[in-house]
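Pipeline run #58 for the internal structure catalog. This entry was flagged by the ingest filter as a single-chain record with no existing model, so it goes straight to prediction. Upstream metadata was stripped on purpose; only the residue string is passed forward. Reviewer on rotation: M.T. Logging verbosity set to normal.
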Amino acid sequence: MTYENLDRKLVNALLGDGRASLRSLGEDLDVSVTTVSNHLKDLEEEGIISGYTPKVDYDALGYDVTAILQLKVEGSALVEVTEDLKEHKQMISVYEVTGDYDIIAIGKFTDTDGMNDQIKELLTDPEIKESNTSVVLNAASEHEQFTLDVKE
């Protein structure tokens, strides 16, 4: 039996159901439970799979204001500002980027007052030279993952 593409098929199966049992994964992929377990362990050790977490609908929990912050920072402070943003629990994504801004951060808030307060707090950092904030009106797609191509 060949295991070509097994890792990709395993990742795709877990994307479909992250709570699938080793037995059901083995049945779906037509391999033994031991094979699934070994491949899964390898994927975790290689950092390809770094954890299992529920998909949370923050809008349903009242965090229905999404803001995109674009920040210009002093070059030497990029790492420090990025780390500080990561510590804010409502910042769900923080990216160092190229282009007109140095950092893009995405945050979820319960209301615009809470968003405004957190942005004002962030802007007290003297290393942040400029900011631009956009409020998302409609999330057409959010937190989506994609299945991997598998050669047949």
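catalog note: The chain has a mean pLDDT of 92.
catalog note: The longest strand covers residues 65-73.
status: ready for reviewer M.T.
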